[in-house]
Queue: 2 jobs
Job 1
Amino acid sequence: MSELDIPADVTGDVVTFRLDGEVLAVAAGRLREVLEKVRVTRVPGAPDFAAGVINVRGSVVPLADLRVPLRMPRPAEQDDVRILVLELTLAEQATTVGILADAVHEVTRLDPGTLEEIPPVGTRWPPRYVAAVGRWQGEFVTVPDLNAIFADFLGGQGRTHSNGATGAEPNAEPETV
Amino acid sequence: MMDEETLATFLAEAEGLVESLEAQLLALRDRPTDRALIDGVFRDLHTLKGSGAMFGREDIAGFLHQFESAFEGVRDGTVAVDDELIAISLAARDHVAHLLGNPGDGGGQPLLERLTLHLGQSGAPQAVETAGGHWQLRFFLPPDTLSLGGRPEIVLEELRALGAADPRPILGELPVLEDLDPLELCLGWEMELPGKVTEDEIHAVFMFHEEGLRLELMPPGGDRRKGDRRQGSTTRRRAPATATVEKTAAPPATSAQAPALMRVPAERLDDMMDRVGELVIAEARLIEIANRSGDANLMLVAEDIRRLATAMRDTTMSIRMTPIGTIAGRFRRLVHDLSAKLGRAIEFSVEGEETELDKTVVERLTEPLMHIIRNSADHGLEAAEERLEQGKREAGKLVLSARYSGAEVLISVTDGGRGMNRDAIRARAIERGLIAEGTDLAGDALLNLIFEPGFSTASQVTELSGRGVGMDVVRRTVEGLRGSIQVASEPGHGSSVTLRLPLTLAIIDGLLIETAGERYVIPLAAVDEIVELPAAQARPGGGNAFLDIRDSLVPYLRLRGLLNCQGSPGPFQKVVVVTSSEGRVGLVVDRIIGSNQTVIKQLSPLHAELKTFSGATILGDGAVALILDVPHLIQRGRCEADAGREAA
């Protein structure tokens, strides 16, 4: 798998977390902090992907739910959630966002030898939202392509949820950060 | 060499002068004999040249020298102000503005030639020849000149440029060596200057060293008289034999009556606003904690902090408020240029120049407004013959006006031109696929299609406008400032484009309300009054949503519905009556919590498209509350009501 275009996000330190029973990982360099028990303010009219905002040290930060683009089920009521506060670049502007997690595990390094592209069959995830799949403590780890996901949901609506009038598929290549 | 801060100061000052110069030149065109304006232009040119030289920008100083002389001639009455002189001077002003960012660009030479040619034609003597003989000049620059960064060699160079012969240092005041402070200037100079040099020219050389300057000047063939510092006067008399001057500290006479001003880099104001925002949020938390604690002393202090924070906020905001007039000069210039380019006489006026807006808003409005003005002059106003045919006056009217309306400022550009062509707009909209063939839109809805991307009905693409880009960009900019834009037009009588903008983007007074357990902020400036919702109308039903408030009908919208809230309301709902462009409209809420200072935080790009909210704020308990954008909310409510009617 050496020809695989692995983003730098994946080869350095990553932080692993659990969502709907799956293990996911994001670049540790993007993580600012992990929050618990945060009051979420609902944003009426916003897409499910970013249905709320939270207060992170005096800033108003959107809270994103990766279960929407990754097509995971979303339980109605959930008490014990964690929020990973990440620094991303959205619409060419440095933006802080929160993403929901059921639990946050550890900062680790994925063995580059185990990293693979997502197999074309047998997965429920849209392939362009997944940068790579690796292994961690005997489990599969999915590295979501946050750039691709957030790019699709900019402006308050997800292109995947629009009526498809434009039909333009967003760029599927994972971006190297 | 100059450090960056000094350079920035110079550039800021020079930009201010360049702008003032432009305004005065434009005013002078209309009132060519106005003494104050002529003096003003001369002074600006002079100061610009002087500070250019002082900061080592010989390109600027050299370029401006001739213009300064020309206006000296105007001041003396030997050169007349005419359109050509104004046109050349405006072009020169542009060149200087260009030079500020591009040092050493030699592109100004043709302008100088044009000026010489023009002055030659108008038969102006270049300089008044005085009788022969020489000025005798002796001077000591202020002792602190060096420590303040002054450069005596520049003064000497300028004197040499005036024709100074044989400058000799005066060493008599040098202290003994152990008392010598290398930063204290003890040297003086003496020299002769040609008799044709005017006294003003000599004084001009010292304009940056007036405070503490000792200067003795003996006119050609006259007696030397020594100056007395205390009786030094700032007025310059024109009599050629005025010999004595020792200047008191004073900038050139104009600014004497102007209020003391200070230039501050804009980003410091932004930083300050951020800090005040944080202060206001911290204060809200303090008040909440104090109230919960029940400690009377703590509550007293908290109240004090609240008062101070409010005052701090108001002061900071007022610092940031900028009158529209500050950018009006650019529009005058634009219209002047357009008028020349299009060959149409345009009568441009600005109303409500004193109307103030947050500086960010004012800055970001400049481009869109220029675009609108360009469009109005190019497409709106007719050519002279067409106007005369229709019995209109030859000069077309163009008015930029600004005024307050609730928490908003309305800025409009109105022209007295031909009005917009509805048929052409409809045809174009159909051609562009914006509306279906055979359909028509009522009233202004059709006109507002001009803000759609790629729309342009100009049959000819002119140099000025009509490329079909622009109006959509204008709308996007205005919406980015949380404003809206509308056009109105009357065939044969002209059109007007109106921008509605929020007063500020930073902190507002808000009314905190609760609906279905969620808190929202309504900008207090939009709120008229609060009334009870009659119990009979507590639940949405088939009836009309109107209230009778003091014999006038007020339609209302239910926030629960607009914000897709769950659950059903309690029996005691309130109606917040707000003013909008649609008149008075009520918003039904569950509960009024109170008023608070609201620090507006922009929503992230993920939520930027949601027009219902103008931002978010952080409450005293740390939770986030969204700020309702009243005009957009009401617009949405109206659309939903329309849709409901159609469905029924």
Note: Residues 1 and 137 of chain A are 21 Å apart (CA to CA).
Job 2
Amino acid sequence: MAAGTASAPALDQRRRPPAKTPFFARRRTRDLTLIWLFLLPSLVIFALYRIIPLGWNVLLSLEFWSPYKPARFAGLYHYQEMLFYDDAFWKVFWNTIIFMASAPVGIALALGVALLVNTRVPGRGVYRTIVFMSYPVMTVAVGIIWQWLYNEKVGLINYALISLGVINRGIPFLQDFDLALPAVILASIWQVIGFYMIILLTGLQSIPPNLYEAASIDGASAAQSFWRITLPLIRPSLFLCFVVGIINSFTAFDLIFVMTGGGPGHATDLLVTYIYSSAFKLSKFDYAAAMTVANFLLFLGLAFVANRLAGGEAGAIKRGA
Amino acid sequence: MNEGGTARRDKGGRNVKKFAMLLAAGAMALTAGFMTGGANAADKKITVVTWNIPYYKDGFQKWVDAFKKIHPDFDVERIDMKGTELPAWYQTQVVAGTPPDILDLQGGIWLEYASQGGLTDLTPYLKRDKEYTDRIYPEVLNNWVYEGKNYGAPMYISKTLLFLNRKMMKEAGIEKDPTSFDEMMADAEKMTGPGKSGFMTLNFDWLYWPLFKMNGIDFVTPDLKKAAFNTPKTVALVKRLADLTKKGVIDKISWTGRWVEPNGAFAAGTVGMLHAHAPAYLWFKSKADWVNSDTVGAINLPGDWSTPNSHAFVMSAGSKHPEEAWDFMKIATSGDGAVTFGEQTNNLMGDKIADQELMKYFEKNIPAVVPALKTQLEHFDKLTGNWPFAKDAEIKDAFYPELQAALLGQKSAEDALNAAEQKVNRILQSQ
């Protein structure tokens, strides 16, 4: 009994949970607080400049809105207008898709160039610099350069084609409904190809050479090495280029604006240029907001598809990596 | 000891509190002072936005000096914007609640703003200040009327005319200026050759519409409620223009270029005729040595139809100082202010009396520009393309791409005009 009474408090003490550390004194809480404090400025800026405008934009797309009048609820009116009545919207929507679809062409070309300048060619550093030089050039300047190159009367391309006897009259590249968009896409690819090349070159140079040596010993051909080693191992670089390509097609505003202004007709208008024209030239801010939502959804969908193609974990940080 | 320490701490605490309160009071007083000062400064200021005339500094200062004589306690802030940037900038200012008091606008941009209540109705001011109103050409003033209300004080006036490359005409054996559409196109055909085209037009802001009007085509019904352009006559004309474009008689840039491209092409000396508005003359003259009064002729388009593309000062509905703003507008658009502006920018103004002085000035100093300027004061009864549509920009955007597709051979004239008619009617009904 005595033993029993003597051991009871000791048992109680053993069973009692350890003294609670105050919430704010816990290490985990402190770490989390610190993390959130570091993240807070970025999150505030992100919310201010991305989330709130996006939310406001969605709201705007559901209203009849003008800078001069009080807003009225419009429901899905602008979306109906966009989907069923505005053929220009569909034209510029497909233009945007085509512009985007041209990204792989640029990436393929850049990969070719990257493979070339990755070999032991004499002066490869110079070639790399030359190819990359187009990228830092201001987009407006790129537009002006290509506008001149394409000029029907005094353009270098037409001059070359006439001199070579390929054509006998200048081609109005930027005035032709069928040629204007490919012409603008070519200028865009020319500008960004240097950037793609550098990204892909970095990917190529990170492939361990012993993989190629092993493949060579096993009798793999150059093509097999390319398809089985090079291409799978530069997939993250390709993904990055693809994402940049998509973003580029959403932000090619200045190039289009300088080279064609979206014309002829809407032949070179992209969603981004059409949204701008609708808002600021036609004062249809509400309608432009609806198109911006469509643009955002398109972008979201493409980013999702690209992520899936890249293995579903693009941008993820692996623990212990 | 402890009590003494507590007392010292209390006293110290009270001092800190006092200091903090003093600081706060000082800060509040300063803020209040700044705010009052700021409010006063803002209260006594008008803002004037001009359209792409950054070089116009001395003249603007003269306007300000004249304004300050009647409003010495007011400041004038001046902002100059490029035409392409002005609408976007202005509308963001309106949304922000800080629209400028006075705005220089061109063409039909003002209609959108006026129809939505964004501009001040100037009719009461014009009725009150008869002395000013009587100086202005009534037809020019009428260009700034929407639903019976006047929204603009005319600045410089410009409308379309036909420039003739006399060198090319001579080479093609053309001795007489064209007097009809058919003659004009026949002459254009004669001047066309390798690297040369006979005719070109500007296409923005309805500037091409005189080509249709001279062929008897109306864009809308007189009540502005329904499209009237989709007729067999228009189909035939569009087909003809498309055919001439395909042959190179009409330069393709006519339908694709904006301002620089067509005027630049005419400056190159390879275009026989240019249908443009008067300011084009000094632009292409500045780019080409060959341009002078002997080599370039300036006449009214056969049939005398023209599209105005003038400028006016308008007043924001949000102006806090409408009386002062109106005074500034009068100073800038009439009398000495108008003469100063006309001389420094080589334009004619909406003020009849100022224009007499300006014509004398141009005859003496820039005689080459006189023939073009003379056309600007003629045939005010034959203005077209200046319909007061509330959704002017939207109608243009619905119509022109369809027309352009037909003119460049992308669509048949019938299909393009049908589609355009449908779109234009939809907008007209929603106005």
Note: Residues 196 and 412 of chain B are 26 Å apart (CA to CA).
